[in-house]
């Protein structure tokens, strides 16, 4: 059974005001002091962000438990230095992001200017094991129509600089400012994939291959396909669902490749529109149904995704739980809807952040 690992980026906030705080280095130092052997947490592009990575897991319940544990540990270390953590993909409150001081981040700020300074966005990246680069590229080619559905399920960034953006995932719109970000054309082979990456590097516009920000890509560090379209999810259960569906998509794509079934020949322009629609609507309106790329209610498109991966999820024992989790999201709403409902109820973005801090650690209020 394929293993899965999850990387989550969390927002550091003031526990009283809800405003982002640039204290990632202090939180990381506190984590290292508490357990020098634990290599879970990392700093990110902005000092208001903290990232953690789970270990590879084959059991989704174990993966979910590790996500919960890492979130609680992040909260504990942040509390020790006077901060809190929130699984929010953008800050609801106004913020002036502080770019990290490493040479890499400073190069990015010089090269990309305001696009770097405004990239205080928190994502969830899912790594799913593959047997080879050839299988990995075949998977990347076949995932493309379904990635927007994952983005809609995870959408958790309706607010930007104190305003409602009218988007469910504004993070994804900010992320698209990177020159290498977004959906990809069909590659067809590992050789063609590698050549495309080499051509991109030859332009001089990217610092290194880690900046090839495809929606789904081959990891250069692990033998995995890395799916990068999701907002960080407000609830750990939603993050586990995204990981479960990602493994189902990878396994289904690999089976299709081995069976000689060709990938859908969709153009990047249509895939971009599917991503935009998912970012705009989330689960509250229409999405684009991968079969034909025509509008359909979100519930219909989510059901189509579940049917697409049903055999793979049944074989791994995850189908019933995935169906239940999708039904709950459609009924109760993703993170974007929860945040908007909180604002409607409290009238305060500060209270929105406070409630999301609690939910990040598993509370419901």
From TrEMBL:
Under Gene3D superfamilies, the record lists: 3.30.590.20
Keyword annotations:
ATP-binding, Ligase, Nucleotide-binding
- Is this entry keyworded Nucleotide-binding? yes
InterPro entries attached here? GCL_type2/YbdK_subfam, GCS2, Gln_synth/guanido_kin_cat_dom, YbdK
- GO annotations under biological process? modified amino acid biosynthetic process
Which EC number applies?
6.3.2.2
A GO molecular-function term, please?
A: glutamate-cysteine ligase activity
Reactions catalysed according to its record: L-cysteine + L-glutamate + ATP = gamma-L-glutamyl-L-cysteine + ADP + phosphate + H(+)
Broad class of enzyme this protein falls into = ligase
Function noted in UniProt: ATP-dependent carboxylate-amine ligase which exhibits weak glutamate--cysteine ligase activity.
Q: Which family does it belong to?
A: Belongs to the glutamate--cysteine ligase type 2 family. YbdK subfamily.
UniProt-recorded name of the protein: Putative glutamate--cysteine ligase 2
Q: Which organism is it from?
A: Streptomyces glaucescens
